[in-house]
Amino acid sequence: MKKAGACIILFITVMAALAMFVIGEAPDQTGNIRASGNPCEGEGSPGHCIPPDYFKDTKPATPLPESEMITIIISQKSFDRFSADDAPGILTIPVSYLDFDGNFTNTITAPTWHYEKGLTTGERIAMIHMPVTMFDHFITAVNGNKLELPVSGFIRQYDNLSDLYAQIEPPGLIRNMPGVPDNT
User: Fold this and answer.
1) CB-side exposure of 87: number of CA atoms within 13 Å?
2) Among residues 126, 102, 104, 120, which one has the least CA distance to residue 180?
3) CA atoms within 13 A on the CB side of 40
4) Residue 27 contacts residue 33 (beta carbons within 8 Å)
5) If 0-12 CB within 10 Å is exposed, 13-18 middle and 19+ buried, where does residue 113 land?
6) Which bin fits 179, alpha (ψ -120 to 50), beta or left (φ > 0)?
7) Domain spans, the chain
8) Which residues pair with 126 in a beta bridge?
9) What is the pLDDT of residues 51-92, one digit of tens each?
10) Is the pTM of this model over 0.90?
11) Are 45 and 39 within 8 A, CB to CB?
12) How far apart, in whole angstroms, are the C-alpha atoms of residue 154 and residue 47?
């Protein structure tokens, strides 16, 4: 009985060692076994691999102050006009429409917030929001043609200005603008 017990213990020990070896040296999706602990090295490593140390010293980005952001508020009518049927999820705005002096208003206290002229109380709106440097780069890159923006990345839609202001209060907000509740 002692011999059978010793054989069983030896068998279990060998199986455990074999299992650890197989798990530690498991083949990747291509069937290759990498000897390195770094998944980016060795035969069969993917060409798009990010090494584990890449993110070791990263810190969260410092949010940009509102003065370095641009906010453009347009009506749902304009949003629908600039939404192409052949490119769902993309807002295509002619650069000429983004003439802030001709088509938009803003205030001295909130110079980076541009409101489409003619917005009415209760009207659905869309807010385009991004860093000013990015906006300037986009405008330069399209060379006076049309600015194309993914809706999911840069645009939020609201039922009206009151709905927007319930979630975001722009700096220097003037409370007598259309759709803005007077809480003073």
Assistant:
1) 12
2) 120
3) 8
4) yes
5) buried
6) left
7) 2-55, 67-167
8) 74, 157
9) 777 888 888 888 888 889 999 999 999 999 999 777 888 999
10) no
11) yes
12) 31
